[in-house]
Amino acid sequence: MKYIIAPSILSADFGNLKRDIDMINQSNADWFHIDVMDGVFVPNISFGFPVMAAVKKHAQKELDVHLMIVEPDKYIHEFAQAGADRITVHYEACTHLHRTIQLIKSSGCKAGVALNPHTPVSLLQDVIADLDLVLIMSVNPGFGGQKFIHNTYKKLQDLKDLIYGVNEELVIQVDGGVGLQNIADLSRAGATAFVSGNAIFATESPAETIAQMGKVLTMGTSI
After folding, report:
1. pTM for this predicted structure
2. Which of 20, 30, 35, 38 is catalytic?
3. Is 64 annotated as catalytic?
4. In this structure, how many other beta carbons lie within 10 angstroms of the beta carbon of residue 138?
5. What is the distance between the alpha carbons of residues 77 and 73, in angstroms, rounded to a whole number?
6. What is the pLDDT of residues 97-155, one digit of tens each?
7. Given the residues 20, 30, 132, 175, the one annotated as active site
8. Residue 175: active-site member
């Protein structure tokens, strides 16, 4: 099983952004996770195209872009142009989800859909075969450092059941409150990609924390 660790740039030190990008480049992490927030879909504002371009300039790993914005179709092409390798939109923000997924793919990116904690996995049944990734939010999106919602484990299991025999190559990603204390349990529930922010960047040695996460996933038990 190939597990993916994706540190969230939202928790990086923006006064030393290149330093943190270089740390991720040199670490055992697999992707850069980039949260884009518009202050409308979620009650917070983060970075847009200029910061994306700055990260892309120095990043040596794939850019995993999570759009927490209204009307994402308007900006998909621009995020693809700015260097996104995969773009994830929210089910709750898309009136015509199938059209949005096709737009992401036609822009040259892999397509993902995120579900807020209250949104059931079953609503993806009609598009699951078209997706490359599903992101299960284990906190309400908008701010880092929130408490993990334990119903996430059931949703991961439900998603694993949904893709069985249909799209078993789908990446099952989880974001929110992910750290060394629960990453093994999340993998056992079905997650294959792990977004982590404060649990990495707030530690004394973020690169070592990433390495420990990889070790936990390999061992299948917490350390």
Report:
1. 0.95
2. 35
3. no
4. 25
5. 8
6. 999 999 999 999 999 999 999 999 999 999 999 999 999 999 988 766 667 899 999 99
7. 175
8. yes
